[in-house]
Each structure stands twice: as structure tokens, then as C-alpha cells.
Amino acid sequence: MNDSRPVVVIGGGLVGVCTAAYLQRAGHAVVIVDRQSARQAASLGNAGCINGSSVVPIAMPGVLWQVPGWLMQPEGPLVLRWRYLPRMVPWLMRFVAASQPARVTAQARALRALLGPALDAYQPLLDDAGANDLVTRRGYLIAYSSQKGMVGDEGGMALRRDNGVHIETLDANALREFEPTLSHDFIGARYIGETGHTPDPGALLARLTAQVVARGGRVVDAAATAIETNGAQVVAVHTNRGRESASAVVIAAGAWSAPLVRQLGDTVVFDTERGYHVEIPTPHEMPSRPVMWAEGKLFATPMNGRLRGAGTVELAGLQASPNWRRADLLLNQLHKMFPGAVNGTKPTQSVDGARWQGFRPSTPDSLPVLGAASKVPNAFYAFGHGHVGLTAAASTGRTIAALVSGERPAIDLSPFSIGRFR
């Protein structure tokens, strides 16, 4: 694009910042527009995993029969609040449709194409920002507390294997040697070695943002309110603090993307999964790598000076108040996984160094929305990453930068198109 105006990226989380960084590498000037409070959202509160093997959609075959349980078990790993059910009906209908076996296979293939190169896509950004200390490559464990859970997870493992993921199965003894701090209640695990993690997602975001600024980018602490077009072209983004001229716009606003999409004449079936985390500060013991408790749907990740437990899905929208009982549930599960972390003492809320709740931008088919707007060719979408925002951020940024530059991206974007919601 031969235009001196900057590309405006709406969204200052990891997806937006990685997109801005790759745009700069392609020769574009960039402006990131986002509220400071929004930049403290899902990019900071995630489980810290950069997991290219995360190809299993949330909607798997048989999910329809699980919906009643989500309504009846308010403290289960996935819950739907009754009051929010009417709002969720369109999303749930597409969610159930996405669970058909043929669609699951296609979705997993698309996710692997995007996520498989995750660490490679991050590498040049880490090098530029001097941030290699913020990504560790030790793989991760999926641990099972029952034989039933291990057998029941074989469908997801088969999807991973079919997409080129190498999986090593560990019995109880091998698991003890691999991760001795993990409770002996676990009967086995599967190890995926290609995964990395960050011990401080907030520091990673800050370091990458600082590098964008060092290369001449601007970060505007404001909320995007309108996208100005002239004919079929974006010319500016309006915020609550003024107008930003734009040669192109990228919508990477996570859970807050849908209203901006509608301004461009597109439709998206989109909602938010409310996620929680808790942290045990200065734990006595920590795992050496992330460990997922398969039955509990909990990720335990070693952070700098703290042990984070992240997980659960709550479908309740953006406005409902947090249900901190879900965070307390995570804390109890974290103690069961690593009883030595608090020296054998059952943790109370006072042990919890941080209780956090945030919003995962979620599509029914677990695929983010990537690509050009259908009616405005210089507007681009990069949102809806659900559980894989940290993993997909750099790959997404590289892909969107290619599109903005008029180049062909490295992956097929048709599964991610906004057009699938028509």
C-alpha cells in the first residue's frame, strides 16, 4: 500500500500488538487504539500456553446432550447462566451444528494451519523486543485422575495425531519422574513437547508493545467509537478522544469487536466465554511446565514467583457480575493438583494472590474471524480467538500483515471468513 497514513489497529492485546509489529516489519506505520483497561484483559489473564496442538474445538460430537448439564451445574467446568440463555440461542444453535464430525475434522485442520507455526511466528518478534526470556519451550502435560477420563479423551488425541501432533503417553510411574510435584492421585498423562509457555503474559505484552512504540508506532489510550468510510474505503477511526486518519483498519478488539463489525455491514455470531484464574504467590513447589487436569478443565502454569490456575467456561455475557465461587473452585482444584504448593495446608481465599475474571471472544465453531471485511476492502478482522489468543497472536499478526500489504497469506483463510455467518 502506497499510503503515508498509518494502519489503525483497534485492540491493544496480544493479537493487536503482534499484528502491529508485523505490519511494521512490512513497512507500514501503525497506531494502536485501545483503552488501558481493555489492554489488561484476556492477554494478561490466560493460562500462559503457546500451544500449537490446541486443535480440538469446544463443540465436539455429542455436545448437544451436555447442554442441560451446563444449566444445572453452576460450579461445573462449563456453565451457562439461565438468565443469559435467550441471548445465547443463536450462538448455541451454531455451536451444536459445529459439533458434526465432518465439521470438527475441518475445524481442527484449520486450527492446526493457524496454530502449528505459533512459536516460529513469535520468534522474530521476541528477537526484536529482546523478549526471549519470556517464552520457555518445555512442552505441557495433560494429566488424568481416572482411567475413564484418559479413555474418554482419546477422541481429542486422535484429532491431534491426525494433524501431525506427536503425543507421548506416560503411566503413573513415568509421570512421577516427569513432574514429581504433581499429586499422586493422577494415574497417567499425555505429554506434548511442541508447546511453549510464558511465565508472565503481562510482561510479554508490555515488552512487545514497547518495541512497537520504539519503532515509531503510537498507542492511543482511547475507545474506538466509529469507523469512518468514504465510499467503500476506511479513511479514519473515531475515538472518544478524537479522530485517527487511517490507510486501513484492523479490528482486533477481542470481546468488544462485534459492534465495530456491524458498522462495516457484516454479521457475526459471537459471544464471550468468561474465564477465571487464581494464583498462589511464592508457592513452596511448582511444576516445571504447564499441566492440564483433563477432568477438571484446569491449566496449572508456573509463572514468575507464582502458580496460576486458569480455566472454566461461563457463558453469561459482558455485563453480569463475576461469580467468584468459580475462582474459589479453581483454587481448590489447584491445591488438589499440587498439595505441596502451600506446604500441605488447604488454601483459603487469603492465600489467593490474584483472583481474575476476563472475557474470551468466542465463536461457535472455535475458529477466529480472520480476513477482509466483505464490503470494505481496506478493513480487516482479527478477533474471536477464544482459548487460543495467546497461541495464535503472532500467526494472526503475520497473516493480517500479509493481507494488508496485498500479499497472499501462508494459510487458507476461507474457514476463518466472516462470510460463514451469513
TrEMBL record:
SUPFAM superfamilies: FAD-linked reductases, C-terminal domain, FAD/NAD(P)-binding domain. The keyword S-adenosyl-L-methionine does not apply. Gene3D superfamilies: D-Amino Acid Oxidase, subunit A, domain 2, FAD/NAD(P)-binding domain. Residues 7-403 form the FAD dependent oxidoreductase domain. This is FAD-dependent oxidoreductase. GO terms for molecular function: oxidoreductase activity. GO terms for cellular component: cytoplasm. InterPro entries: FAD-dep_OxRdtase, FAD/NAD-bd_sf. Keywords: Oxidoreductase. The keyword Transport does not apply. It holds the Pfam family DAO. It comes from the Bacteria.
